[in-house]
Amino acid sequence: MRLVKSQCLIVFFGSLLLAYLAMPAGSRGGETVPADVVVYTATAGGATASIAAAKQGSAVILIEPGKHVGGMLSGGLGQSDVRGQRDLIGGLARDVYQRMAAHYGRSDPSKAFNFEPHVAEETLKTMLREAGVVVVYGEQLESVAKQKNRIISLKTRSGNTYTAKVFIDAGYEGDLMAAAGVDYTIGREGREKYKEWLAGRMELLPGQHQFLFPVSPWKNGRFLPLVTPQDQLVATGEGDGKFQAYCFRLCLTNRPENQIPIERPDRYDPGDYEMLRRYFHVGGDQVRYPLHMPKVPNDKCDLNSTGPISTNLLGAAWEYPEANYLRRQEIWQTHLRWAHGLLWFLQNDPSVPERYRESARRWGLCKDEFQDTGGWPHQLYIREGRRMLGEYVVTQHDLETRRTKDDAVLMCGYNIDIREVQWVAIRTFRYPKAEDEVYTEGYVSQPVEPWQVPYRSLIPKAGQCNNLLVPVCASMSTIAYGSFRMEPGYMMAGHATGLAASLAAKDHLAVQEVPTEQLQQLLREQGQILESPR
Q1: Are residues 167 and 265 in the same domain?
Q2: How many Cβ atoms from other residues are within 10 Å of residue 367's Cβ?
Q3: Could you tell me the CATH number of the domain that includes residue 147?
Q4: Same domain, 69 and 129
Q5: Is residue 403 assigned to a domain?
Q6: Same domain, residue pair 278 and 426
Q7: Which 3 state secondary structure label does DSSP give 104?
Q8: Are 52 and 180 in contact (CB under 8 A)?
Q9: Cα 12 to Cα 18: distance, rounded to the nearest angstrom
Q10: Same domain, 293 and 348
Q11: 467 inside domain
């Protein structure tokens, strides 16, 4: 009888804790909340990390700075990047896709790689509830307390403090990692750094995602906004710390009864799209339509970028990784205004060929998506933020000639995919006389064979922090990260770090001391794919 009473008390007080943590962050403050594992940021990788640790018996708190779970998986990226790695997706990531397939009445998870954003979020929320993960929303990191090389607690801007045996930074930005004093880098390295032939500033050549017709970068004696003069470029192959463009992945529908029409944006300036206007003026309807619109269920699409001018806003996010919260919000709004204005421009501007305007006008925002943000996505597509410099730095060589690892915890196989970095004004000879025109720079698309991600790339150097794991801002060069940076990879890395965190917490180990053989055995038992099936 005493045992039953004790169990009831545990359930009772546990439910009180859950109810307290479910309160809005602004309605509480100054509390200290303990857990075995604390995961910061509820990206899809953060969700799978939390689920994996909780299923191993750890008490897990998942802290989300915003209001939603899933990051880009639920933030508009409804066409998962699986080309080249469909058969490498296992473990909790595969479970996510299987559940989404079941939602659409499909038994084959490979049929669920195109999905609606709200379905992705509800799927992850259900899995988090089933695992007993406590999710806290609206809590932004303020500071970290360390003792020697261990994180003791993290404090949020609401005044709450979260303590844990092990912490996981699952954010796209790497804020917890940086606050903990872990080494990291930002932007692309030069070729000499790791002897990578794809690294550094790229050649300015015609090709994919390039202008097909000459566009002048000049207006009133000055360059158009965000155009880099050629004399400000580093030499080909040198590093410059720049990285690929961000954007919003919009979910649109052509079903009239579910549409929110695209209205003229406040402070709309058609001059913002002068480069696109000139492109149409020169090329007419021979210009490739600047939007890629792969279908997702229920007459919707995942609006992606394509070509030299698209939803990608080149050069507008370079300060984002190190910016404070206020500046980051400004950068988000800049990208959102660009996407909104671009849609309005394509639907209405007379410089756009009529067949393109007609096509664009068929689409609107979705009434049943992103309902608390007016149909606009709640997540900026942060393709690359900080990247840890951990126990092992994965480089292009690890994707080509050193593809196997003794401590492998997942596999990737997506091509090295790096979108355009900047618009550049260069002198060319496509005119009768040499004149400046705009080129894009930085696009990389390089196929790879399946390669193993080592556990060492998900943990800091032992002397810097021994109770932190980093499944998203992993220890990789820009080139290697270009293949890893897809949501399936983040989810599989989250699964691995969640299990590692539970092992470290249970046995009082540094994350660098977690037995990789034991970790690999658990991963295999849970369906993670560690060896290529091909």
Answers
A1: no
A2: 14
A3: 3.50.50.60
A4: yes
A5: no
A6: yes
A7: coil
A8: no
A9: 10
A10: yes
A11: no
DSSP 256: G
CA distance 388 to 186: 9
Q: SS3 for 244?
A: coil
Q: What is the DSSP string of 44-74?
A: HHHHHHHHHHHHTT--EEEEESSS-SBTTTT
Query: What is the tens place of the pLDDT at every residue in 307-358?
Result: 899 999 999 999 999 999 999 999 999 999 999 999 999 999 999 999 999 9
Of the candidates 495, 500, 492, the one whose C-alpha atom is nearest the C-alpha of residue 467 is 500
Q: What is the pTM of this model?
A: 0.94
Which of 510, 505, 346, 315 has the alpha carbon at shortest distance from 421? 315
Tabulate helix, strand, coil % of the chain (nearest 5).
Answer: 35, 20, 45
CA distance 469 to 513: 12
Q: What is the DSSP letter of 362?
A: T
Q: H helices of 245-372, where?
A: 274-283, 325-348, 354-361
Q: Which long-range contacts (CB under 8 A, 24 or more apart) does 308-311 make?
A: 308/209, 308/210, 308/211, 308/279, 308/420, 308/423, 308/438, 308/440, 309/273, 309/275, 309/276, 309/279, 310/247, 310/342, 311/247, 311/248, 311/249, 311/250, 311/338, 311/339, 311/342
CB atoms within 10 A of CB 512: 18
Do 211 and 306 have their domain in common? yes
pLDDT tens digits, one per residue of 103-142: 999 987 677 899 999 999 999 999 999 999 999 999 999 9
Domain co-membership, 146 together with 251: no
Q: Are 196 and 477 in contact (CB under 8 A)?
A: yes
Which amino acid, 218? W
In contact, 265 and 41? CB cutoff 8 Å = no
The answer as to whether 295 is a domain residue is yes
Q: Do strands 416-418 and 259-260 pair parallel, antiparallel, or not at all (unpaired)?
A: unpaired
Residue with tokens 């540094």: 510
Q: How many domains does the chain have?
A: 2
In this structure, what token pair is assigned to residue 54? 């909780």
- Judgement on whether residues 436 and 335 belong to the same structural domain of the protein: yes
Both tokens of 531, joined, read 């060896």
pLDDT at 17 over 60: no
Q: Tell which of 447, 472, 493 closes a domain.
A: 447
CA dihedral 47, 53, 59, 63 (to 10 degrees): -30
Task: DSSP letter for 476, please.
Answer: B
| Same domain? 154 vs 216 | no
Phi first, then psi: give them for residue 503, nearest 5 degrees. -65, -45
Flag whether 1 is in a domain. Answer: no
Q: Which domain does 47 fall in, by range?
A: 22-173+485-525
